[in-house]
Structure formats: structure tokens, C-alpha cells
Amino acid sequence: MSSTGNSSTIPSKALILIALLQGLALFILHQSIEFKFWPNNEPQWLFAFYALAVAAPIMLLLGLGDKPGKIIQWTAIYSAILFGLGFYIGHQAIPLEHIRYGGLLAGFVTTLCVATFKALMYTQHFATGDVLSYSRLFRLSWRNFLTLGLALLFTLCTWGVLMLWAGLFKAIKVDFFYDLFNERWFYYPALALANGFGVLIFRSQAGVIDTITRIQQALMKFLLVILSLISVSFLLTLPFTGLAPLWETGGSTLILWMQALMLFFINAVYQDDPESQPYHLWLHRLIYLGVALLPIYSAISFYGLSLRVDQYGWSLARCWAFLLWGVFAAFSFGYLWGILRLRDRWLHQLSWVNVRMGLLVLGLMLLVNSPMLDFRKISVASQMERLESGEVSLSEFDYRYFRYDLARPGYDALQELKQRVKKEHPEILVRINSYFDDDRRNKPSSTKAEVLAAIVGIDESTPTELLDIIHNGITSSRWKMRRNQGYQLFTEDLNGDGEPEYILADIQEYGVDFTMYNRLDDRWEVKELQAVQGGGGHFSGQKDKLLTALKKGEHGTEDKEWRDLTVGGYRFRVP
């Protein structure tokens, strides 16, 4: 009996102590965030400690068996690696006040879960000293997965019972239990203990876990046949439809999903015995026909992803898509080689491939959280190269993506870009700065001088008080600043009184907005000009014509009480 299926050699108190310590560690880390003490203000340490507090106890709870020394040794090595990776990922969230690390954290947690799952089963296997065996790895993986899943379900049930207890007493005006159960110092250790008890219970029920595994195999046998039929019929249809409709509907993603599901169900149905025949021979051959065609999916997906990279450069999503493509392609070609060599006995190749691919996946999940394979840096380098080569202009560049999705590499790139554009393209400087405005304190990142420098048409005759009003108007609408591609100030006599009004053209991503400033005695009247033709206020479909007319100075008026402003043949009216 494996150590995963029998905890009799491990003192139960040791497992419960591990669970309790995990709960206390998570509670302390949460409190550091809540009350803003170290390591909250240093995310590199916070991420590192969280990685350690989550992964190490789980590996010990599920892995400790009749050879605890080796499990502890391997867990310590893996935990040290995770601590370093957590430190690096946390460092990507600095400076903390300018970087939103939700996406950063989500990616780290997801890869951490996959890596820990893989590391756990290999650690359990290595601890025995036996030669790597797919049969044993398979049993370990499903036992670990189901044991932890059921333990978490038990934890949720425990929490539900506690909330019912608290609710019942609260209903009769006894608030003690409600207040107690909602205290973090109570529920962190309590839920961690519940999880520890759940692991302890289900680890001792290896037979039940194996039965559940066989049940899910029976259910997936049917689904695998359907998936194989879909896979084959889809490829037979493609010659008649072509690939163009596929790219219009996110085809690369759908193909990756198809491959992922096929590979998952294949490994769930053809489990740990390469001699097993869960289907009749003709169905078995239909299945491996579907498997043999998976490399075609890899080729199609590679073509679609390559087109996207050529058109738009590397991004986080495309880096992840190529990583998944590489993993799925390696599985697919490995299985195909086994089918070509062994025919009906190709499951022996499946076992050989899976053992080695498991280690590769583990390595990749760790590497993507390291400087060696940092997708954020790859994306920044690619997009900046497109900017340098002229494939994308400064006005079209996606500053928002750099600000909110690329963490510290994106932040550093924007700071460098600001220094390069501030003299020749002050409007771009203001646009970048707008993404770093402190909205809570209503404090813009651009100075008044920087904002005014971005406006074409300001000269010594422009009234000082008007400049103050224009500056305040521009900085009051940050969402417009983030879409702005330039400002131009010019004059037109719109009311025929002989005194020109100042007009500010606010060039947005999809159009141009016009604002009139009219002097009335001792104050300035500010009005947004409305487009007479079309919808909205800026003729979004005619932006290029408007910009050409503004550049040539082709603007005038039409006689009315308030004359219409005309720019390039299009009219804008004072409301």
C-alpha cells in the first residue's frame, strides 16, 4: 500500500499540527495585509511567504508516509524553489502604488497549483526509491487530486455547519457565536484544521478513492468516443470550409481546447495498465485514429497563432497559448509515434510519454515564474520593437495594456518611453501620465506645464485665465486623457460679435471633440459643440478628414445667432 493510501505510519497529531500551523501562517499573512504591516508593503516577501504557507503544508499532508524523511527532504527543496519564485513574482509588483497585480497573482497561483500537483506525485514516487512507473504515478495523481478535493469539500461543509450554528443563535439574539466564527483568528485555524482532518480521513480510504477513479473512468469512456468522432469529423469538414472562418471566431483557442479535452479524456480512460482494453477493438481503433490526427490540430493551431504574432506581436495571452500549444503538440506527436510503431499496443508509448511530459510540465510551470521565461518581459520587448519599427504609431500604442497587464516590466517601459517622447510628443507624455493619476486624491500625474505643452496653438496672446480653465477641463476627465491623441487650440468668431471664441479640438482615439470658450464680461463660458450631422459629438467615422482640415486650417463659420463651426465640410453647433 502506498503512503498516500495509508496514514497509519504517520502520527495523526503530526498531520493536525501541520494543518494548524498552516492556518496560523495564513492568518498572520492576512493580518499583515489588513493592518498594513510587514510584509504587506513588500510584495516580494508577501508572495514568497504565501507560496510557502500554501504549498509546503499541502505536500506534507498528502505526502507523508512510511518514509517521511525523504518526503520532508524533497518538500524542503521544492519549497525553497517556490520561495525564490514567489520573491521574483512579488518583485514584479513593485512599485506597489502603481502596479495592479491581480493578473500577476492569478497566473502565479494557477501555475503554482499545477506545479505542486506534479511535484507532489513525483516526490512521493522518488521517496520510494523505485524506478519511475507510470502506473504508480497515475494512481498517486488521482488519489492526491480526489483526496484534496474531498477534503476541501469537507472543509466547506464544516464552514457551512458553523455558519448555521452562528445563524441560529443570532436569530435568538445570542451574537457570541456569530461574532466568534467571523473572527479571522478563529476561522483561519478552524478551516485549516478541518482541511487537515479531511485529508487524514480520506487518505485512509484509498479503496474508496480508487473506486471513485474507476467510476469516473466509466463515465469518461462514453465522452471520449464522442470527442473522437467530433475530432475526426471536424478535420474532414475543414477542406470544404477553409481556415478563414476558423480565424474569425477565435479558432486557435477552440483547437487548443479540443486538444486539451482529448488528451485529458485519453489519460482518464486509458489509465495505469497499457494492456487494458476498455473498448471493443474497432472502437479502440477509432479512438487512436482521433489521437493520430491530433498533430494536425497542432499544425493548424501553430499556423493561427503564428499569424497573430506576426500581425500584433507577442502578448501574455499569445505566450501562454504557445506554451500550451508546445505541451499539447509534444503529447500529440509522442502518441502518434507510438501508434505508428506499436499500432494496437500504442498505450505502452502513452505511458513512456506521460512520465517524461509530467516532468516537463513541472519544469515549465516553474520557469514561467522565473526570469528565464518571463512572459511579461517577452511581451514588452515585442511590443516596443513594433513601436520602434513603425508597425504601430505612438498614438495607436496600447499604453493601457502596459499599465495594467504587464506589471513591473510594463511600468519600467512606460517610464522610459516618457523620457523619450516628452519633448517631441508632449501629448503622449500627458496620455501616459494619465494612467498613473491618483484618482483617490484627485491628483493628476502631469503638471500644468506638461498639459499645456501638449496643446498645439497656444501662444503669448492666449489669456492666462483661459489656460487655467483649459487645464482644469482636460485633467478633470481622465478617461478622455487616456484615449487622447493630441490637442489643438484655434479661434473662430462663432457669434458674429467681432470677438473670436477659442476652440479646443480634443483628438480622441475614435473621433474629435470640440469645446468652445467664450468670454462673457469677467468670466469664461464653456460649451461642448455638438455635431449637426451624424450621431454623437465628434463625427467618429470622419476623424481623418477632420484632422486633415485642422492641420490645413480649414475651419470657418456659418451665419446663425451662434454660427456653426465648420471643419473640413462638417458642422458643429453651439448648444
Automatic annotation (TrEMBL):
Record keywords, A-Z: Membrane, Transmembrane, Transmembrane helix
Keyword flag Ligase: no
Coiled coil spans: none
Record field: transmembrane: 12-33, 45-64, 71-89, 101-121, 142-165, 185-202, 222-247, 253-270, 282-300, 320-340, 352-373
Protein name: DUF4153 domain-containing protein
Annotated organism of origin: Pseudoteredinibacter isoporae
Source lineage: Bacteria, Pseudomonadati, Pseudomonadota, Gammaproteobacteria, Cellvibrionales
